[in-house]
Amino acid sequence: MWIADNWKDYEVLDTSSGEKLERWGSYILVRPDPQVIWNTARKDRRWKEPNGHYHRSSKGGGEWEFSRLPQEWDIQYSSPRSQNLTFHLKPFSFKHTGLFPEQAVNWDWTSSIIRESLDRNPSRGIRVLNLFAYTGGATLSAAAAGAHVTHVDASKGMVGWAKENAAASGLSDAPIRWLVDDCVKFVEREIRRGNTYDAVIMDPPSYGRGPKGEIWKIEDSVYPFIELTSKVLTKEPLFFLINSYTTGLQPAVLTYMLETAIASKYGGQVHSSEIGLPVSSNGLVLPCGASGRWTSEIA
Hints:
By secondary structure, the protein is of the alpha/beta class. It has two domains: 7-89, Sandwich (Immunoglobulin-like); 102-295, Rossmann fold. Helix content is 26%, strand content 31%. The strands form four sheets. Strands 1-16-17-15-12-9-10-11 form an eight-stranded mixed sheet. It has a five-stranded mixed sheet with strand order 2-3-4-5-6, with no helix packed on it. Strand 3 and strand 4 form a beta hairpin. The two termini are 21 Å apart.
């Protein structure tokens, strides 16, 4: 398992009975997590007095309960492979805060490849395409490492939030192209334009709808989209990263998709694994989905 263990401003304190106790900077949140099917004693007193608690509803969805939690606050991320990044957080729809902290393990991985490539060839311009880019964690880490990034998300609000994170991280002037667009339609247009990229990051949703009501169901749509996106890669690409939060897409499935759609054309290596977050109270690791990584032989 690849573990995001370089956080200082974020921590999974404990897990029990379908919920996780988390520290986000100075604030404590309790949020549901379907992976937590065990029932253990809640010895940490912070279970009883969190700043925010998302309660699931038996009818679907749920609602937040707050206690001394600001409407918005910041946390920072830094590691030996990633420079200081700052993220604005706020609790919003369906338990989210605007950040998936487990993705830091992938930020470190992509940053290291970009930096090593630029060390070998400082004049090389590295173009990264980040699809379903959300609030920009992967975008900022790649830009901070020296890449030119195209950030694409269908939500105007998420792209605006990502721009705020870039400004807070001192990356307002970084070479980032911000686009509010349907990811599939954008890639199709890039193919027609002849535009190419040295690396692709994609974080597709489990389910969604396109601008004209097209249904995106990851089990049906993701492999054709990987094949489509492979057409915008340069002749010597660096890496291709795909994330999955869907239980059905296990690491072996991600590996097979990348081997058949990417490695069959470019060679290189594919590795996939669960990703997770350490639980400080007991030394366990909370599973948080899976990632598939393809790298070229020279990466």
